[in-house]
Design a protein that fits this description.
Largest sheet: 7 strands, mixed
CATH class of the largest domain: Alpha Beta
Structural class: alpha/beta
Number of helices: 16
Mean pLDDT: 94
Distance between the termini: 61 Å
CATH superfamily of the largest domain: Aldehyde Dehydrogenase, Chain A, domain 1
CATH architecture of the largest domain: 3-Layer(aba) Sandwich
Low-confidence stretches: 1-6
Shape: globular
Strand content: 15-25%
Strand order of the largest sheet: 1-7-6-5-8-9-19
Number of domains: 2
Radius of gyration: 25 Å
Number of strands: 20
């Protein structure tokens, strides 16, 4: 049976069970969403494959117009989707709305960039033409996260669709109702089979990763990303990964300690620390360490007292965060704010500041997806930079300094995809990110993402040889 543009492929539940979501604030069950089984996954791939030729042949301007229509629909549904985000993940309503606004802007950006995505002319024989043509890859599977579910998904969806790929989107199992609703909002802007949504957890993600598709794009944990990369190596799918990070913040001796602490707090506590590019470990110069740590403690205490720290997405995440904090405390760290499990229902975890941290603690070596700011005091800027350059991740890093020599030294040395100087979050529109190490592979944002979803064909056209006219020709 043909799949309509608005169908969410979540039938054919393998076990009869579904995905049960609890309210992060109260712990109460909100709803259970059906999970796709193997048959539904196979059906989605078949339907998406059948729509590839016609969608790839659609004029880029028409694809861009469809994306603009999807952006308008998303904007109109902002309140409903933000409400679902707040319910399923605990994201404050204002922040959830901001994420949807970012998703709208991203769809509009790719609607403009897609039609002007171009190949290159090549220098060859002057009587020949040599150039490259960007073509769609085919069926793209997009596996997106829960921590900024609409904004992140729209980036991948927009770039994939405007370059002529068909899309199978699997939202995170931590926000399945939101993912389902997002599909219902966006899909009508496109022809049948071009944009499909499949709900499910790790098993469904594995089935999609092993399927006969052309692109696997994943934003999420490094462990999941590694499994997806291995699957892509076996199937031949092009893999794009933006995975976890252990982003350092390096605080130099010449900056204002209170300002530096405010930047650290923004980086560590925004969205309750549930951001891939959150500040995960802090190296502060001993010359300002005492004032910096006192100011950071005050920042955390204020957030805890005024209730601005939202709950973590679920109890499983809170348990993982607290286990890392407990490990640090057992190894000699001091929690000068937070660091304990609060009483009451839900999955709240307080903004936490850990002092006297050392290299071997998990909070300094692993991603801690919660509002935790671990601090290590260093004797020199060079010592801090050496520690900031350590580890298996390579997503982003931040440097707070007024010393241009130190800034240039850090930019050159840090083995990450993004270096931010004197601002933990920010950047120009259209900025791209290319993570390294266990943080992923390939461009995840910006105009370069169009290249990730395209394959290049080189064309050479030579003039035919001159021919002698036949006798019967004038």
């Amino acid at each position: 049976m043909p799949t309509t543009a608005t169908e969410t492929i979540s039938q054919d539940t393998a076990s009869g069970s579904g995905i049960t979501i609890r309210d992060p604030r109260t712990g109460d069950i909100l709803w259970t969403v059906p999970e796709a089984g193997p048959g539904a996954v196979d059906h989605a791939v078949e339907v998406a494959r059948s729509a590839t030729a016609e969608w790839a042949a659609t004029a880029p301007a028409e694809r861009g117009a469809a994306l603009r229509s999807a952006a308008r629909a998303l904007d109109a549904a902002a309140q409903e989707l933000a409400g679902l985000n707040a319910s399923e993940t605990g994201r404050p309503m204002e922040e959830a709305l901001a994420g949807i606004a970012a998703g709208v802007s991203t769809l509009e950006q790719y609607a403009e960039l897609g039609p002007v995505h171009r190949g290159h002319s090549l220098r060859g024989n002057r009587l020949a033409s040599d150039y490259t043509v960007a073509e769609s890859r085919g069926v793209a599977v997009l596996l997106t996260p829960w921590n900024d579910p609409v904004a992140v998904a729209c980036g991948l969806i927009g770039a994939a669709l405007v370059t002529g790929n068909t899309v199978i989107h699997k939202p995170s199992e931590r926000c399945p109702r939101l993912g389902e609703a997002l599909g219902e909002v966006l899909a009508p802007a496109f022809p049948p089979g071009v944009f499909l949504t499949v709900n499910g957890g790790a098993e469904v993600g594995a089935l999609l990763s092993q399927a006969d598709v052309d692109v696997l794009a994943h934003v999420g944990s490094s462990a999941s990303g590694a499994r997806i990369a291995r699957a892509g190596a076996l199937t031949g799918a092009h893999v794009i990964r933006e995975n976890g990070g252990n982003d350092p913040l390096l605080v130099d001796s010449d900056v204002d300690p209170a300002w530096a602490a405010s930047q650290a707090a923004i980086g560590a506590f925004s969205n309750s620390g549930q951001i891939c590019t959150a500040v995960e470990r802090i190296y502060v110069h001993k010359a300002i360490a005492e004032e910096f740590c006192a100011a950071l403690q005050a920042e955390a205490a204020q957030r805890n007292s005024n209730g601005s720290v939202a709950p973590l997405v679920d109890l499983r995440m809170r348990d993982e965060v607290h286990a890392q904090v407990a490990d640090a405390l057992e190894q000699g760290a001091r929690a000068v704010e937070g660091g304990t499990l609060p009483d009451g229902p839900g999955s709240l975890y307080p903004a936490t500041v850990l002092l006297d941290c050392t290299d071997g603690m998990q909070v300094m070596t692993e991603e801690t997806f919660g509002p935790v700011a671990p601090v290590q005091v260093v004797d020199t800027f060079d010592d801090g930079l050496r520690l900031a350059c350590s580890g298996r991740y390579g997503l982003a890093a931040t440097v707070l300094s007024g010393n241009i020599a130190h800034i240039q030294q850090a930019v050159a040395a840090l083995p990450v995809g993004t270096v931010k100087v004197n601002e933990v979050f920010g950047g120009a529109p259209g900025g791209a990110a290319q993570p390294r190490g266990d943080s992923g592979h390939g461009f995840g944002y910006g105009p370069e993402l169009l290249d990730e979803f395209s394959q290049v064909k080189v064309v050479h056209i030579a003039a035919p040889p001159a021919t002698t006219p036949r006798k019967d020709q004038p």
